[in-house]
Write a structure and sequence with these properties.
By secondary structure, the chain is α/β, with parallel strands linked by helices. The protein has nine helices and nine strands. Strand 8 and strand 9 form a beta hairpin. Helix 3 packs parallel to helix 4. The longest helix has 22 residues.
């Protein structure tokens, strides 16, 4: 059995995920799933309460529902971005494609359409946290070993280490999955890839996605 000091030390190593959704069922099920994967969670039922908490005591990553009363997810993200670069994933419905594009333009890191696999959500969270950790290490001037070099394909330049893309020198906003799919194609230009190969590139092993998920990223 861990001592009290051991418990505190273990909790301090936990990465914390904030969930913001007016649907109590979503808050409960997602929170339980993330805790089972070793994350600590905080839940908020409205944007106003969440905004104050996210700024006062930032978690490692936040998940917002787009459609919420009082302050929706887009408004919450816009206010948050005025003061914080906290990684954010949006939960969206299938009919919210324009909102997805706006959310990415406002600075969201990724989005997942409901209904979604808990395993897929965890995979996206871990990918974004890995990227965020790399960015923090760079800002601390820590030496990076084995960091991949940028990839240039004509006017396209991809930086795998930082998940950054430019086209004609202008930054391009991509989700984590979109970046990984594009990277897989850029590494072997001219080679036609099947949907299954793009699924393997964009999602971790054992994460099930259907054809429509891939289609939503490639249009």
């Amino acid at each position: 059995m861990l001592t009290k000091q051991g418990d505190i030390a273990q909790q301090s190593r936990q990465q914390c995920i904030a969930l913001v959704d007016d649907d109590r069922n979503i808050l409960t099920t997602v929170s339980i799933a993330l805790q089972a994967e070793g994350f600590a969670t905080r839940v908020y039922a409205d944007g106003d309460t969440a905004l104050r908490a996210l700024l006062d005591n930032p978690p490692d990553l936040a998940i917002f529902d787009i459609k919420m009363p009082r302050m929706d997810g887009l408004q919450l993200l816009q206010k948050l971005r005025e003061k914080s670069a906290l990684p954010v994933i949006f939960l969206t419905s299938k009919d919210e494609e324009p909102d997805e594009a706006l959310g990415l333009a406002l600075g969201a890191d990724d989005y997942i359409a409901k209904p979604f696999s808990q395993r897929l959500l965890v995979a996206r969270i871990r990918a974004i946290l890995r990227r965020s950790e790399l960015v923090r290490s760079e800002s601390d001037d820590k030496p990076q070993e084995g960091v991949p070099e940028p990839v240039a394909r004509g006017r396209l330049v991809m930086d795998p280490a930082r998940h950054r893309v430019t086209w004609d020198g202008k930054p391009v906003s991509l989700t984590v999955s979109e970046f990984l799919i594009l990277e897989a194609m850029a590494m072997r230009p001219g080679v036609v890839k099947s949907r299954n190969e793009m699924m393997d590139a964009g999602y971790e092993d054992q994460v099930y996605v259907d054809d429509r998920t891939i289609d939503s990223h490639i249009k």
